[in-house]
């Protein structure tokens, strides 16, 4: 079983987006259940952005009921040795084209 953590910036993203998309808490919970089985993701909805021996940064599509056929993007770090997942960033692609590379770099420096 994996343990889930949320960065401070992720919590802010989640709070802001939950105001727009009321199903987001439930959608995130479903993703957590999926990640307990497949922490590295499966299929085309998951892409590895960065890999080191001790951590893997992954970008995934997060299905959101409030958006119907559209997705949010979620960036998370998976530490296999610790069985720990830390959510780093959450955004809607219609609002923001790409992930925040600076935020990912800051995360990698902090570990």
Summary keywords:
111 residues; 5 strands; 5-stranded mixed β-sheet; YaeB-like fold; alpha+beta
Q: Write down the domain tally.
A: 1
- The ordered string of helix (H) and strand (E) elements is EHHEEEEH
CATH fold naming: YaeB-like fold
Query: How would you classify the helix and strand content by structural class?
Result: alpha+beta
The residue fraction in helices comes out at: 25-40%
Shape: globular
* Order of strands across the main sheet: 1-5-4-3-2
Protein architecture, described:
The protein is 33% helix and 32% strand. By secondary structure, the protein is α+β, with helices and mostly antiparallel strands. It has a single domain (3-110), classed as YaeB-like fold. Strand 3 (56-63) and strand 4 form a beta hairpin. The longest helix has 14 residues, at 24-37.
Task: Give the helices and strands, then pairings.
Blueprint: E1 3-6, H1 8-20, H2 24-37, E2 46-51, E3 56-63, E4 71-79, E5 84-92, H3 101-110
Parallel strand pairs: 1-5
Antiparallel strand pairs: 2-3, 3-4, 4-5
Give a quick precis of the structure.
With 111 residues, the protein is of the alpha+beta class. It has helices at 8-20, 24-37, 101-110, and strands at 3-6, 46-51, 56-63, 71-79, 84-92. It is built from 3 helices and 5 strands, in the order E-H-H-E-E-E-E-H.
């Amino acid at each position: 079983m994996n343990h889930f953590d949320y960065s401070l910036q992720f919590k802010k993203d989640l709070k802001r987006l939950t105001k727009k998309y009321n199903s987001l808490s439930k959608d995130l919970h479903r993703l957590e259940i999926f990640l307990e089985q497949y922490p590295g993701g499966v299929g085309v909805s998951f892409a590895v952005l960065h890999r080191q021996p001790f951590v893997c940064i992954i970008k995934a599509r997060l299905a959101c009921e409030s958006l119907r056929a559209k997705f949010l993007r979620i960036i998370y770090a998976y530490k296999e040795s610790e069985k720990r997942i830390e959510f780093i960033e959450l955004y809607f692609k219609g609002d923001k084209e790409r992930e925040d590379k600076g935020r990912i770099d800051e995360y990698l420096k902090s570990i």
